[in-house]
Write the structure tokens for this entry.
Amino acid sequence: MEIIRYAELRAEPWRNSGGVTRELASHPKAASAQDGAWDWRVSIAEVSKAGAFSAFPGMDRVLTVIDGELLLLTVDGAEHPLEKYRPFRFSGEAETASALPTGDIRDLNVITRNGAFKGYTSIIELSKKRAHPVFEGQLGILLQGQATVTPGTAGDAAAAESGAAGSGEGDAPEATPDSAEPETLARYDAVVGSDSRTPEILGRGFLAVVSIDRVTG
């Protein structure tokens, strides 16, 4: 189970000095969060100054305000008031600028290369009774509240294989025990999804689920 600890990420200043970005994940891994040598990137930005956004030609963007009240985004001349926890999709090559009518904000950015990947962001409310799984191709990012994560069990495929290897026809497959202790998530920590031992998140608060789907056909 992989957890990306937000507190350990390096903050990279914007070219226009209007904020800083911390990269959670990218593919392929880039030397710098700003160099664009990737097909997708997930990052969190702290925006403290109004101004123009960097252009990402050939890219698709999904931006979500995750701290603060309001970001006023102007995309190709059209104004879009972005409220907290409401994902907004726009073209990376559009002429884009921001204003901060209610003060500094923090936003979650998902950028994908057109024709190769498609990114999605969903905001869900966590439960202490029902764990939320994080599957392969997803990141689960704790936005607010308190939560823990466990690696889950080996899954049905592994259990069926275990049963097939039994010594008798009547042998029942045994569930794979999970002895791992829950790990506590801090704010903005990201859990990397998996289909073999799917991480499960329990708690109270809000979680951003980022899905990166490969484009086929």
Q: What stands out?
A: Residues 156-177 have pLDDT under 50 and may be disordered. The longest strand covers residues 200-214.
